[in-house]
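FAQ: What does the model actually see?

It sees only this:
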Amino acid sequence: MAAPGTVPTHTSATSDALPEGGSREPKQLPDLIRLKRDGSHLTEAEIRSFVHAVVDGSAQDVQIGAMLMAIQLQGMDLEETSALTRALAESGQQLEWPKAWHQQLVDKHSTGGVGDKVSLVLAPALAACGCKVPMISGRGLGHTGGTLDKLESIPGFNVIQSPEQMLLLLEQVGCCIVSQSEKLVPADGILYAARDVTATVDSVPLITASILSKKAVEGLSALVVDVKFGGAAVFPDQEQARELARTLVGVGEGLGLRVAAALTAMDNPLGRSVGHTLEVEEALLCLDGAGPPDLRDLVTRLGGVLLWLSGQAETQDQGATRVAAALDDRSALGRFERMLMAQGVNPGLARALCSGSPTQRRQLLPRARKQEELRAPSDGTVERILALPLALVLHELGAGRSRAGQQLKLGVGAELLVDVGQRLCRGTPWLRVHLDGPALSCPQRRALQGALVLSDLEPFTAPSPFTELVLPLMSVQP
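And it is asked to produce this:
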């Protein structure tokens, strides 16, 4: 049996080996589940049959969960993964854009992290650089936050947009951030929600198919995927993340999609804020040309890769410089404001959010009822702030889902009051928790205090989370 989450070399169960000619008699859904459960290779027709059953409602929830778990445990080879990606992409409408836009069409996706609000900043920054960014995004999975959930913490923001509305948004604004709908990749929308509640989040083929199916319908010139690794990532180990990165790039090439995959560390939270409204506030700081340096660094680097890969910059560094300029001259912020209004936010609220001070912005977004601060238990240098225990406690407090469709507490979150590498004195406040319910329990407080790792190191500057870039074999510009 393959290790969970892998894309193994194909080995079929003897009784279900493909006959000469590469096809079997049509199978019922329970037969397909059994085939994959027992390690068999599924044909493209069989995979399409499963996806069709998901979309037309003939697949029961328990059958969907069983197939996801079979894929989680047995894996899929590249051929199966590509077939699943195509079937998901073709389960709905294909997006069509003016031919003149082709080189401008770019997008970014993240495998999910803690405090990861890059998309909220990068999409409007790329639009300010002349790109068209039709970002089809997702909701939170497991302990990681979802871009759509964060944007929906802004009153009035509508993530449901038809293909015709997306075209208008790209014409008027240059970017949009939308959800899968009944028209756009509906099969992935169903599987995505099921993965969140069936412990199948960390499957390489399921992640690959989910990401690339949403991007295949966009008709992109280039895509960058932020593949996170570390204690709070889907894959703790960098080699596992590298495997996913290579799979994404390889399957993307087979689909005719130019994909680059960046490996970025996710041991510490990204930025200083975790939680839906708090992350929107921090994204606005970054769009102001300020904000945490690790967030800005990742935004500019990923944007630089996209501008280079799509042929809109001669080098990655030149592309990164252009993205940084869009943040500093506030043209990216202007695009964000226009996106908010175009996607349903009251124009007065959009203007106030994008022109107000941090204090004024906080009054305009959903807030938790109370706050609690935690203090450093001893002197020391902040060696790490473990993102996972922080995320798990916030999940318990209502910032995440334990079942599909569950309502979120959008104001729940945490602010880091210190930086990695900073020297602290005992009693210094290091974390502010925003919560709606009762006070933190003793186990929750212990878990959060355990996230602060102090040492005797001299103060230092935290390294960039960006560690490696995996490029397609043919990474020449168009």
